[in-house]
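User: structure tokens for DNA sulfur modification protein DndB, please.
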Amino acid sequence: MANVDTSFRYVFPAIRGVQAGREYYVSMCPLRLLSKLFHFDDEELLPELRAQRSLNKSRVPEIARYILANKTDYTFSAITASIDGPIEFSPVNPEPGVPARVGSLKVAMDAKFIVNDGQHRRAAIEAALLEAPELADETIAVVFFVDRGLERCQQMFADLNRHAVKPSASIGVLYDQRSAAGRVAKHLSLTSPVFKNLVESERSTLSPRSRKLFTLSALNFATLELLPEKVLVDFPRAAQQSQDFWSAVSEQIPEWTYVREAKMTSGEVRQDFIHCHAIVLQALGRAGRSLLTHSPSEVRRRIKKLRTLDWARSNAQTWEGRAMVGGSMAKSGQNVTLTCNEIKKTLGLSLEPDEQAAENAWASARR
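Assistant: Done. Predicted tokens:
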């Protein structure tokens, strides 16, 4: 390890560790220094000449908004960086024969810090500080490795991201304590006679043998469609309106009741009908928002018309191109709209201009 000129250096309090026979260091960095210390590879370089992926600038504002919306409750994992330059580790209170773990990491002023993992966090923090400078002295953990050339940096990036798996949408809803819609969806999954014991809270897809009929992520999206934000933030009101709406819907879809009564299995219903799938729940929620603008007696009268819908997958004449594409359940926003249109027409509800435009395009494509 090279000696560092102590007149001109960065000094980080650090803990020294060893991975794969190589030393690394864990420290804390004030947020205000991130943009000064860490830089990105030249965006104009070819990918094979860079040590990291190009910055996806569309992600930065989203992460910055997360920080600003949760200034007293945000959480970030460590940034990983390589140091290209001489360093020196000075242990605190070293003991003979005992490996020194805690001390100061001294880095030459002209050294370069290259982000191996966390470039979007770094850019978002820089953007957030423009609006919330009071966060400048808060810190983020940084893991420092010694730069050993481009190939090693590229391999580090590959290794750090090799086993990264994005959590399912359902478990994201389950663990998110901030989402108003998520709170309502979780409440329904635990207390509603319609959904209790039938909602998968960890996975966003259901296997053919699963005993669950719905996913928590699907119920969350349906809740977002059903209730406006001003209602969602009033949890007691939102929970009651949701309970009442889905209870009324369930009365018109006998297969949901058959599953609760063990007269049909969840797998049989998911295989033969479309009404328990995410796109249809979302479409029901969207249609429900329009329906709930009517009087309670009118809502009760109209919602009974759902029983006249043939929800069978085999009913391709109705659902192909709307909820299904090529016989498989669709997922696009356009398909949600077209499925909602069919439900709205059944309920005698008028279509919004964008819904009518989608309907006209769908009808033209079928001619």
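User: Anything notable?

Assistant: Residues 169-366 form one domain.
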